[in-house]
UniProtKB/TrEMBL annotation:
Its cofactor is Mg(2+). Heterotetramer of two alpha and two beta subunits. Signal peptide: none annotated. This is Succinate--CoA ligase [ADP-forming] subunit beta. It is an enzyme of class 6 (ligase). Succinyl-CoA synthetase functions in the citric acid cycle (TCA), coupling the hydrolysis of succinyl-CoA to the synthesis of either ATP or GTP and thus represents the only step of substrate-level phosphorylation in the TCA. The beta subunit provides nucleotide specificity of the enzyme and binds the substrate succinate, while the binding sites for coenzyme A and phosphate are found in the alpha subunit. ATP binds at residues 63, 70-72, 126, 129, 134. One of its GO terms (biological process) is tricarboxylic acid cycle. Mg(2+) binds at residues 226, 240. PANTHER family: SUCCINATE--COA LIGASE [GDP-FORMING] SUBUNIT BETA, MITOCHONDRIAL (PTHR11815:SF10), SUCCINYL-COA SYNTHETASE BETA CHAIN (PTHR11815).
Length: 416
């Protein structure tokens, strides 16, 4: 496609972002002058009916609110909810109430939620509209060009990854230098690529300008509107919206931080964040504890190279305390898929003896019952190795990273 834009965030980027619900994103957009359909959130079926009763109607949309895309094409685990998906168009207050009742407390499975799905704890009731066309629009940080890039497509309502794979020519990219900001030229160029005409171009220009202002002002990482609809009377309106924020900048936005829904987050990732640990759960069976994101990536790569599969990305950082290391170890062991652990530490700011003390404390507290391989190098390395040797625990020492990876993969296979 030639833009260098990556659709999927890296593991390091994913752990440094915060997602919010659709209705919350639309509240933010409205503050920046983006046209939004009338709607309201509800936590019970009765509340849903009441919200719909305050909207013009006579058509409403009942939307499940979870942190996953593809809600309309998803399915609920409970048969009572039928096969209508997590987004439903209804034409009476009774239907609003009935569909909200079916969704709330039920588990919605989408292509992004994983097979376990996510429980629906709130629904968004939105006024219907006359849809003439469905488009795709997003803004994201392009790592290759260091710009904010606008992506647009005439194929709204579809997964952009599918469009990119099958018909990449239907995607338009427009890079915007943050030093100069967005201009009318940028907006019109994107509008024309979408086949907009007449007053639609002016409406789109105003909308995209507002979206860009919002993106920059809120330290957004991804702002995706799918679909963006053109109505029968020529309005251009976001029908759905996803916003992801840079967690490192949330201290500047306490009002956005209040939107955090901890129930939507992985319990182990949430626990890690409480100890200032960087943790992402993966699919394998070998837990990895390292200090530094680069070392974490290298460790996971070499585990794969030696025939294993990492169970997580866990970075304790450069200044971790014994207590933080102990917490990290417990989080790794709380994953039932973990059949072995590799601790790979390069002691610069982080001292190897602190790591050793934390590992030993945690191993004793949780009754370690899986193979543990430790590779230490750097500050106080000999002291760290001595502490582990004197612990009496069955810790397997490694001389280097390749040796450590080979030993943990072998130990896991022998133990299974």
């Amino acid at each position: 496609m030639g833009s260098g834009v990556s659709f999927a965030p890296s593991e390091q980027e994913r752990q440094n972002t915060m997602n919010i619900h659709e209705y919350q994103a639309k509240q933010i957009l409205a503050k920046y002058g983006v046209p939004i359909l009338a709607g309201g959130v509800a936590y019970t079926a009765d509340e849903a009916r009441a919200v719909a009763g305050r909207l013009p109607g006579p058509v409403w949309v009942v939307k499940s609110q979870i942190h996953a895309g593809g809600r309309g094409k998803g399915h609920f685990l409970e048969e009572a909810a039928g096969d209508k998906g997590g987004v439903r168009v209804v034409r009476s207050l009774d239907e609003v109430q009935q569909n909200a009742f079916q969704m709330l407390g039920n588990t919605l499975v989408t292509h992004q939620s994983g097979p376990e799905g996510k429980e629906v704890k709130r629904v968004y009731i939105e006024d219907g509209c006359d849809i003439k066309r469905e488009l795709y629009l997003s803004l994201l940080v392009d790592r290759a060009t260091s710009t904010v890039t606008v992506m647009a497509s005439t194929e709204g309502g579809m997964d952009i990854e599918d469009v990119a794979a099958k018909t990449p020519e239907k995607i338009t990219f427009q890079a915007i230098d943050p030093a100069t900001g967005i201009s009318g030229f940028h907006c019109r160029k994107v509008a024309f690529s979408l086949g907009l005409e007449g007053k639609q171009v002016g409406a789109f220009t105003k909308l995209l300008s507002s979206l860009y202002t919002c993106f920059i002002a809120t330290d957004c990482s991804v702002l995706e509107i799918n679909p963006l609809v053109v109505t029968g009377d020529g309005q251009v309106i976001p029908l759905d919206c996803k916003m992801t924020f840079d967690s490192n900048a949330l201290y500047r936005h306490p009002e956005i931080l209040e939107f955090r829904d901890e129930a939507e987050e992985d319990p182990m990732e949430l626990e890690a964040s409480r100890h200032d640990l960087n943790y992402v759960k993966l699919e394998g069976n070998i837990g990895c504890m390292v200090n530094g994101a680069g070392l974490a990536m290298a460790t996971m790569d070499i585990i794969k190279l030696k025939g294993g599969a990492p169970a997580n990305f866990l970075d304790v950082g450069g200044g971790a305390t014994r207590e933080r290391v102990t917490a990290a170890f417990k989080i790794i062991l709380s994953d039932p898929n973990v059949e072995g652990i590799l601790v790979n530490i390069f002691g610069g700011i982080m001292r190897c003896n602190v790591i050793a003390e934390g590992v030993i404390a945690a191993a004793r507290e949780v009754s370690l019952n899986v193979p543990l391989v430790v590779r230490l190098e750097g500050t106080n390395v000999e002291l760290g190795k001595q502490i582990m040797a004197d612990s009496g625990l069955p810790i397997i020492s490694a001389d280097n990273l390749a040796d450590a990876a080979e030993k943990v993969v072998k130990a896991v296979k022998e133990a299974s």
